[in-house]
Amino acid sequence: MDNKYQQISLHIRNEIIALAVDGMKLPSIRELSTHFNVTTITIRKALKVLEEEKLIEVRGTSGTYLTEKARREKNFLNFGLLAYDIFSLGNPYFNRICRGFNSFLEERGAGYLQLLTIPAAGKYRRAGLQRICGMIEKGLVNALAVSIPLHADELELLHDTGAPLVNINRRTKNRFPYVMENPRKGAELLYEAFLKTGAAAPVLLAPVEIPENVILGTDVIHLLTDLLNGGGVCRKRLPVFRMPDEELLPGAGIGYLEKAFAEHPETDCVFAMGDVLIREASRFIHREKRRIPLIAYSDEEPVEGALVIAPPLRKIGRTAAELLLKQIQTGKRDMEETGIELEPYQIKWKE
């Protein structure tokens, strides 16, 4: 048919607008030719139509890319991330997950992520959730990632909206796909690192725990304590020094470390969670000229002299975004996957 290339150009245009084209680069001409079962000449003619409409641009041998006009015409989606209102983006663990989520959306040219919060408890909690459900029903939110534990009736509210959902909180009984880290793996790696140091009396520095929130590494702390107790290689109880969020400023952690060593002078190893505390612990150890091993739990670049166990936080965000987009594109909710438990931990060391 003479208008075959026009049909193909229309098909590609519709896929661009419907977000079926991932990212900003089109498949190669040869791949498109195979996909549509036509000659490369027909594909070139179809792409020429889109190029004249300024939806694509051919960049020599590097390939064919969508233009800014095409980006604007895409049906950008609004992804929501449900969290407690006291749990802000300032939290390092939560921040990493958001970064991973956003990086996936940016690469796919798929949409935006907005933080949606409700109170952790009290009479306004349900009202806050109903407000978010209203946003979903009005099309202001197209899909939702849930980072907090929800009650059965609250889950029903979200399910009734018909929006694609994904869970990134360990403490919610899942009726929709979930993505989360494996805290036991993280605790085991921390414990193995501790055994290799030959130490016997560790302390742990961590941000203040927000009740019921899994992203702060609470499960990792409990499991690590169990391993230390069960192994019988150190004192019965792992001392944990927690700093309030408002005190997580440069220099603030030194006082907590001084307190830890004053109360436990036999300390010969430091576990640290959270970037500020890790850096403070490194400074303190070097200032005091103590040859004490520092074992950190973070996915940032390691500080000097620290062994770092890096949890897959960005990967959690990316995988959650990918699952939501897949549900939107296929029109399938509550997909067959019961869940994804990530274990791609990395161990980093900086001399």
Defining traits:
4-stranded parallel beta sheet; 351 residues; alpha/beta; Rossmann fold; Arc Repressor Mutant, subunit A; 6-stranded mixed beta sheet; 3 domains
Helix and strand content put the structural class at alpha/beta
Order of helices and strands: HHHEEHEHEHEHEEHEHEHEHEEHEE
Shape category:
elongated
CATH architecture of the largest domain: 3-Layer(aba) Sandwich
CA-CA gap between termini:
67 Å
Domains (count)? 3
Subunit organisation of the chains: single chain
Q: What would you note in describing this structure?
A:
With 351 residues, the chain is an alpha/beta fold. It folds into three domains: 3-72, Arc Repressor Mutant, subunit A (Orthogonal Bundle), CATH 1.10.10; 77-180 and 316-342, Response regulator (Rossmann fold), CATH 3.40.50; 183-310, Rossmann fold (3-Layer(aba) Sandwich). It is built from twelve helices and 14 strands. It has helices at 4-17, 29-36, 40-52, 68-73, 92-108, 124-137, 152-160, 183-197, 218-231, 252-263, 275-287, 313-330; strands at 56-58, 64-66, 77-84, 111-118, 143-146, 165-167, 179-181, 202-207, 240-243, 269-273, 294-297, 306-310, 340-342, 346-349. Strands 9-8-10-11-12-14 form a six-stranded mixed beta sheet, with helices on both faces. Strands 4-3-5-6 form a four-stranded parallel beta sheet, sandwiched between helices. Strands 1-2 form a two-stranded antiparallel ribbon. β3 (77-84), α5 and β4 form a beta-alpha-beta unit. Mean pLDDT is 78; it is low at 210-214.
